[in-house]
UniProtKB/TrEMBL annotation:
The gene is DCPS_1. One of its GO terms (molecular function) is 5'-(N(7)-methyl 5'-triphosphoguanosine)-[mRNA] diphosphatase activity. It comes from the Eukaryota. It is an enzyme of class 3 (hydrolase). This is m7GpppX diphosphatase. GO terms for biological process: deadenylation-dependent decapping of nuclear-transcribed mRNA. One of its GO terms (cellular component) is P-body. InterPro entries: DcpS/DCS2, HIT-like_sf, Scavenger_mRNA_decap_enz_N. Belongs to the HIT family. Pfam families: DcpS, DcpS_C. It catalyses: a 5'-end (N(7)-methyl 5'-triphosphoguanosine)-ribonucleoside in mRNA + H2O = N(7)-methyl-GMP + a 5'-end diphospho-ribonucleoside in mRNA + 2 H(+). Its EC number is 3.6.1.59. PANTHER family: HISTIDINE TRIAD HIT PROTEIN MEMBER, M7GPPPX DIPHOSPHATASE.
Length: 326
């Protein structure tokens, strides 16, 4: 069973459905059945909680069924088309404190605003649980020796299985721009990303280099400056024109360590729900500036980043440290 119960939302015809009311396009029986199942749900434990997204993930069982279930509960965003209904006598206010011109209240609005999004996964498999397990992170200080001895061999082993985006017909529907350069070319692709709720203009794309030996940030040198400058300029122009967003509202960055190969650069609107950890995102503009100052900058420096304890790259790093000390 996999259902998504959302209350206080609009259906396809633009009609607002209040809490526990069946959408006009859904049968009344199916909604009642779903709510009946939830009444028999027995909580086992909380798997994950996120204050920033106002969501919680729990594990439990349904009465008479030993198979595990996962329920993802998340508060839904406001819909500006109906926000005026919040400021009515139907909303009950509870004063928390008052200080001069500042008032803070708990507000209990009409039921249409009390909706939450609830996704039920049942029966839940091991792979479903892995999506919601919080794995502890470990900081890695990667110097030149560690990179050459452990990280680079790992990157090479993974990159051998990487997809050729520049000559792959299956990605034609994702292509936003294809560079026609004879060498050092790239392709700009739409990047699969969860819908951002903070703005309707959010997008993310990535420019993938054609050079298979260009694996990551570590491989860049002053010789790559013409390529990087061309890539940044052309991608910003294309994305700004396509999505009607000023260049000043688009950021370009390289992640390290990379999650896929070959080398690629992300382009994303500045306004978004979440951001990549600060130690993993390297601004393309800053990268270009560093290479203009020191040609082999990224071969010299120590790069610091976090990895999950279960990450295969961390295993390679730890094995190298054991061999070095042994």
């Amino acid at each position: 069973m996999a259902v998504d119960l959302t209350t206080g939302s609009y259906d396809e015809s633009g009609v607002f459905n209040k809490h526990n009311e069946a959408p006009k396009s859904a049968s009344k029986k199916s909604i009642e059945d779903d709510m009946g199942c939830l009444k028999t749900f027995q909580l086992v434990k909380v798997l994950k909680e996120c204050l920033s997204t106002k969501s919680i993930v729990v594990e439990g069982r349904f009465a008479g069924d030993d198979r595990p279930a996962i329920i993802v509960i998340e508060k839904t965003p406001f819909d500006k088309r109906d926000i005026s209904q919040l400021f009515t006598s139907d909303s009950r206010l509870e004063l928390k404190f008052w200080n001069n011109i500042y008032g803070n209240y708990h507000v209990y609005p009409q039921t249409g605003f009390n909706g939450i999004s609830m996704q039920v996964i049942h029966p839940a498999t091991e792979s479903d649980f892995l999506k919601f397990v919080e794995v502890p992170l470990v900081m890695v200080n990667e110097n030149k020796d560690l990179y050459e001895s452990a990280v680079l061999p790992y990157f090479k082993s993974i990159s051998e299985k990487s997809q050729d985006y520049t000559n792959n017909s299956s990605d034609e529907d994702k292509i936003l721009y294809k560079d026609s350069g004879a060498s050092n070319s790239f392709v700009l692709l739409k990047d699969d990303v969860e819908k951002c709720l903070c703005t309707s203009t959010h997008f993310r794309a990535k420019a993938v280099a054609s050079q298979k030996d260009l694996l990551s940030l570590r491989c860049l040198s002053a010789a790559d400056l013409p390529f990087l400058i061309k890539l940044q300029k052309k991608c910003l122009e294309e994305l700004s024109a396509k999505y009607e967003v000023p260049v000043s509202k688009i950021e370009s960055y390289i992640t390290y360590p990379p999650t896929s190969f070959p080398f690629h650069v992300f382009f994303e609107t500045v306004e978004k729900d979440s951001s990549i950890p600060v130690e993993k995102a390297h601004s393309l503009t800053t990268v270009i500036s560093n290479l203009q100052l020191i040609p082999d900058y990224y071969q010299r420096i120590t790069l610091t980043y976090s990895l999950p304890e279960s990450d295969p790259l961390l295993n390679s790093v730890n094995e190298h440290k054991i061999c070095s000390t042994g």
